[in-house]
């Protein structure tokens, strides 16, 4: 099993920045063969892909709406993945979930695909 714990959510004004963190642990967590991603779910909407990173190669993928504003990164020593969110917009309001899966190939299409381990989520609310 892989355990994922998110932190860093909150209530912020539009235009500011926020950084989310996701700490991974567990007996089956092997960072060299993992991909980790961030998804979000706004009220009344389906959960959507936001960003992902392939741990070994650091290849990344983003959904179009966050490109240029959000950056995903990882800290190998801490087994932690981050989502730096800049220039936040009202439409970024959602519960953000961290996810992980075993993935050997860093292809973008695979980074966006199905994930198997999930965190509990952290609320991000952007106000005007």
Key phrases:
128 residues, 7-stranded mixed beta sheet, 11 strands, 50% strand, globular
Could you explain how this protein is built, in words?
- The structure is a single chain.
- With 128 residues, the chain is mainly β.
- The protein is built from 1 helix and 11 strands.
- It has one helix at residues 108-111, and strands at 3-7, 10-13, 18-25, 34-41, 48-54, 60-62, 70-75, 80-85, 94-102, 117-118, 122-127.
- Strands 2, 4, 5, 6, 9, 10 and 11 form a 7-stranded mixed β-sheet that branches.
- A hairpin with a 6-residue loop joins strand 4 and strand 5.
- The N and C termini lie far apart (40 Å).
- The mean pLDDT is 94.
The gist of it:
The protein has one helix spanning 108-111, and strands spanning 3-7, 10-13, 18-25, 34-41, 48-54, 60-62, 70-75, 80-85, 94-102, 117-118, 122-127.
Biggest beta sheet attributes: 7 strands, mixed
* Helix/strand order: EEEEEEEEEHEE
The average pLDDT is: 94
Helix content range: under 10%
**Termini distance?**
40 Å
Flag low-confidence runs: none
Number of β-strand runs: 11
Please tell me how large the radius of gyration is. Answer: 14 Å
Q: Which of globular, elongated, flat, extended, rod-shaped describes the shape?
A: globular
Structural class, please?
mainly beta
Strand content range? over 45%
Count of runs of 4 or more consecutive helical residues: 1
Task: Detail the topology: elements first, then pairings.
Blueprint: E1 3-7, E2 10-13, E3 18-25, E4 34-41, E5 48-54, E6 60-62, E7 70-75, E8 80-85, E9 94-102, H1 108-111, E10 117-118, E11 122-127
Parallel strand pairs: 2-11
Antiparallel strand pairs: 1-3, 3-8, 4-5, 4-9, 5-6, 7-8, 9-10, 9-11
């Amino acid at each position: 099993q892989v355990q994922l714990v998110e932190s860093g959510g909150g209530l912020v004004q539009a235009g500011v920045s926020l950084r989310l963190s996701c700490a991974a642990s567990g007996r089956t967590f092997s960072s060299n063969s993992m991909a980790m991603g961030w998804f979000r779910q706004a009220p009344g909407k389906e959960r959507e892909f936001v960003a992902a990173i392939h741990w070994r190669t650091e290849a990344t993928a983003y959904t179009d709406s966050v490109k240029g504003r959000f950056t995903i990164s990882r800290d190998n020593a801490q087994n932690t993945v981050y989502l730096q969110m800049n220039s936040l917009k009202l439409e970024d309001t959602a519960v953000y979930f961290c996810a992980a899966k075993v993935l050997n190939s860093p292809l973008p299409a695979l980074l966006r695909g199905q994930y198997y381990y999930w965190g509990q989520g952290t609320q991000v609310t952007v106000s005007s």
